[in-house]
Design a protein that fits this description.
single chain; alpha/beta; ten-stranded mixed sheet; AB_hydrolase_fold; 12 helices; Rossmann fold; two-stranded antiparallel ribbon
Length: 361
C-alpha cells in the first residue's frame, strides 16, 4: 500500500493558504509500489499572468506539485542533499510526464526508491494547476496576449523551489528540466538563482534553436499570439516518432497509458475531440540560442537519446562546450528518442542520471 495525501479536495479552495499547505484529506490507495508515499500539494500563488489584472480578476492561483518519496526518507532526504524537482515539457503536465502509473515509466518512483525526495510541478496552464479563463475561451480575448509567458513560469518555479526548501529544510534542490523546460525554465532559473540549485540536468534540450531568421521568428510569434492556446493530440503516435521515439523503442502499453493520463489531465479534452491545451505564451519571444549557457555555473548534465530529432547531437555538444560550469557531462542513451522514460532503454537513462547525482566514490 502507498499513501496518497491531498492538500485539498479541490485546488480552488486553496487560494488563501499559507506557504505550507494544510492537510485536509488523506486517502490510501492500492498500488504495487510498496513503501512509497505520494502527496499532492496545491500551493497558493499570486500569478504574474497579466490577463488577470487586465480583466480585473483575482490573480491568486494554485500550483499543483506532486511529491513521491519512500516512507521515512522524507525525514532524511534534506540532510542527505537528496531532493529533486522535475520540470515538464511543452505539452505534458508534470505528473503525467514523470509519474505515469505504468511499469517503470515513473521517474519519480524510480528515484524515490533510490532514496530521493522527488517533486514535479505543473506550470500554470497545465494539469491540475490553474488555467486562466483565456485558455477556456481564447476567441473572446483577441486583444489579450497569449497566456503564461516565461516570466509567469519562472515565478512558478521560484515559488515551488522555495516551498520545497522550507518543507524539507534544504538550501538547494537538484533540478531536472525535460524538453521545453530544458530550453527555458530549468537553465534560466539556474542562471538567476544558482544559490538554490545543487545540480542541473538538461534532458532532451534544444539549445541553439531551429536557425530561423528574426523575421521568421517574428511571424511565428504573431501566429501564436493570435491562437493563444497550443493544441495537442495525445493519441497521435506520429508526433512521438517525429521526435525520434521509434515505435519499437516503446515499452508495450506505455503509450496507451500515457494517452489516457494526458487526456484526463485536461477537463476539456472530450469537448476538444481528444485534444489537450497548453499555453502558447511560454514559447513566445525566445532568442536563439535560447539561453546564455556561459552563465550557468552549477554542475550540469546534458543528456539525450541518440535518435532525438529535437535535441540533436551537434546542438547538445555545443551546449556542453558553452556551459560555464566547471563540472559538466554529456551522456547519450543508445536506441532512445525524445521520450526516454517511456522507452525500453529507460533503465540506462535512469542510471546515467543517478550516477551524475551521486558519483561513485
Amino acid at each position: 500500500m502507498a499513501t496518497t495525501h491531498s492538500c485539498c479536495k479541490s485546488p480552488y479552495l486553496q487560494l488563501a493558504l499559507p506557504l505550507l499547505c494544510l492537510m485536509i484529506s488523506t486517502q490510501t490507495q492500492a498500488t504495487e509500489e510498496v513503501g512509497l508515499i505520494t502527496t499532492d500539494y496545491f500551493l497558493s500563488h499570486e500569478s504574474k499572468e497579466p490577463f488577470y489584472r487586465e480583466q480585473n480578476l483575482d490573480p491568486n492561483v494554485v500550483l499543483h506539485v506532486r511529491e513521491v518519496v519512500a516512507a521515512g526518507t522524507e525525514r532524511t532526504a534534506g540532510k542527505d542533499n537528496k531532493v529533486l524537482l522535475f520540470l515538464h515539457g511543452g505539452t505534458f503536465p508534470g505528473y503525467v510526464a514523470f509519474d505515469l502509473d505504468y511499469e517503470n515509466v515513473s521517474m519519480m518512483r524510480h528515484f524515490a526508491k533510490l532514496g530521493w525526495d522527488t517533486f514535479a510541478l505543473d506550470l500554470e496552464g497545465y494539469g491540475q494547476s490553474t488555467r486562466p479563463p483565456i485558455m477556456d475561451k481564447p476567441e473572446q480575448y483577441p486583444d489579450s496576449q497569449a497566456p503564461i509567458g516565461l516570466d509567469v513560469t519562472l515565478a512558478n518555479v521560484e515559488r515551488t523551489v522555495d516551498f520545497i526548501r522550507d518543507l524539507r529544510g534544504v538550501e538547494k534542490v537538484h533540478l531536472l528540466g525535460w524538453s521545453s523546460a530544458a530550453m527555458a525554465e530549468a537553465p534560466l532559473y539556474a542562471i538567476q538563482q544558482p544559490e538554490k540549485v545543487a545540480k542541473l540536468i538538461l534532458y532532451a534540450s534544444n539549445y541553439l534553436g531551429k536557425g530561423k531568421s528574426e523575421e521568421e521568428r517574428r511571424q511565428q510569434d504573431a501566429k501564436r499570439e493570435a491562437e493563444k492556446n497550443r493544441y495537442g493530440t495525445p493519441g497521435d503516435l506520429q508526433r512521438w516518432i517525429k521526435l525520434g521515439t521509434k515505435e519499437e523503442y516503446l515499452i508495450p502499453g506505455a503509450f496507451e497509458a500515457y494517452v489516457e493520463a494526458h487526456l484526463a489531465s485536461d477537463p476539456k479534452s472530450a469537448d476538444l475531440g481528444g485534444r489537450v491545451r497548453a499555453p502558447w505564451g511560454r514559447f513566445i519571444g525566445w532568442p536563439e540560442p535560447h539561453f546564455d549557457a556561459g552563465s550557468i555555473k552549477v554542475p550540469t548534465l546534458v543528456i539525450r537519446g541518440e535518435s532525438d530529432t529535437l535535441a540533436s547531437r551537434d546542438d547538445n555538444q555545443q551546449l556542453l562546450d558553452d556551459l560555464g560550469s566547471t563540472e559538466k557531462q554529456y551522456v547519450e542513451i543508445e536506441q532512445a528518442g525524445h521520450m526516454i522514460q517511456f522507452e525500453k532503454n529507460n533503465t540506462a537513462f535512469y542510471r546515467s542520471i543517478a550516477e551524475f547525482l551521486e558519483p561513485t566514490k
